[in-house]
Amino acid sequence: MANVATHRQIAVVLEELAQEVEALGGTLCCDMDIAMRHMDILQSIDLIAQKQRSLGKLLEADCPEAEVERIAIDTLRERMRLLR
Question: Which DSSP state fits 83?
Answer without folding.
Answer: T
